[in-house]
Design a protein that fits this description.
Blueprint (H helix, E strand, L loop, with lengths): L4 E10 L2 E11 L4 E5 L6 H9 L6 E6 L8 H5 L1 E4 L11 H11 L5 H10 L13 H14 L4 E5 L7 H18 L2 E5 L3 H7 L2 E6 L2 E7 H6 L1 E5 L13 E6 L6 E5 L12 H15 L1
Parallel strand pairs: 3-7, 3-8, 5-6, 6-7
Antiparallel strand pairs: 1-2, 1-4, 8-9, 10-12, 11-12
Helix pairs in contact: 4-5, 5-6, 7-9
The structure holds adenosine-5'-triphosphate (ATP).
């Protein structure tokens, strides 16, 4: 199956300022891909390129086999929820569904109504009076009912409390299972992404630090005590990603296809953080 999103040496500059540099990624179909990186790392730029809202300065990007946003048919296949879950505050929940039905040729009204009911949203409530979590859920419902093949969510949980975040993410999981779509989800909250993502892209300073399926990433990363991180004690080909000296003597995340005797389990949160810290340290 060809990737849903594929980029080759994709670069975007605003004027002379590079926002994304030589980005080469491939997201296979059916994945929930997490996109993380510190402020200004290039996440929104990559998502905007994916939706065709902006065009590359150099390199190539293919979305669902074509140029992003090239025509109405292509746009109909992609659902996009921008940062802060934009909704029309003067319109009611029901008005949003009516607008969605009018604007989207493949609109799934049954799906939209079922979700609104399940979430307990009052159809007559004005969107401006919904809570942040409810607004995020409404925006996700509209993007989903478009019945596209790719859902792009730019920091959809940023303004939500931990309970609303958890509900939103588990709901997303359910619904990806139901619709079989591919999702790209950006967030600063690595712990949240680790719960739902099976593909990860870490950006730092506009460059891809690591990208791939979560299972593959976990298989080649190890945590060892900081004082063992001298290259002498590691298998050949091992790469020290980052040493964090702050936590009880410190620890080092190492990338190695070979097992490392005595290494501890590490998780996606630690690995993502190590790549981001390493990128920051190089700047
Ligand atoms: N329209 C623009 N004009 C000029 N520079 C921009 C524009 N949009 C983004 N940038 C710059 O490009 C870089 C990447 O920005 P981007 O918004 O993609 O990062 P981000 O990872 O989404 O950040 P955040 O986590 O803060 O939302 C930053 O240095 C930013 O200042």
């Amino acid at each position: 199956m060809p990737p849903v999103i594929e980029t080759q040496e994709l670069t975007k500059r605003y004027g002379r300022r590079p926002a994304l540099v030589d980005c080469s990624i491939a997201i296979p179909p059916g994945r929930i891909a997490g996109l993380v990186g510190p402020n200004g790392a290039g996440k929104s730029t990559l998502l905007a390129l994916t939706c065709g809202l902006i065009t590359p300065t150099e390199g190539r990007i293919t979305v669902l086999g074509g140029a992003p946003g090239v025509n109405a048919a292509q746009l109909a296949r992609v659902g996009f929820v921008a940062q802060d879950a934009p909704v029309y505050s003067g319109l009611s929940v029901a008005d949003h569904l009516r607008l969605g039905a009018r604007l989207n040729p493949r609109w799934d009204d049954g799906l939209a109504r079922r979700r609104i009911e399940r979430l307990g949203l009052d159809p007559d409530q004005k969107a401006g009076r919904l809570s942040g979590g409810q607004r995020a859920q409404l925006a996700l419902t509209i993007a989903a009912a478009k019945r596209g093949e790719l859902l792009i969510l730019d920091e959809p949980v940023a303004s939500l409390d931990p309970i609303a975040r958890r509900t939103f993410l588990y709901d997303l999981l359910d619904f990806v299972g139901e619709l079989g779509v591919t999702v790209v989800l950006s967030s600063h909250l690595l712990g949240d992404l680790a719960q739902v993502c099976d593909h990860l892209i870490v950006l730092g300073g506009g460059r891809v630090q690591i990208a791939g399926d979560v299972a593959d990433i976990l298989a080649v990363h190890h945590r060892i005590a900081a004082d063992r991180s001298g290259a002498g004690g590691l298998p050949s080909g091992a790469q020290v990603v980052f040493t964090d000296r702050g936590v009880s003597g410190g620890s080092t995340i190492v990338r190695s296809a070979e097992p490392i005797p005595g290494a501890e389990h590490t998780d996606l949160e630690d690995i993502g953080m190590a790549y981001m810290m390493a990128a920051e340290a190089r700047r």
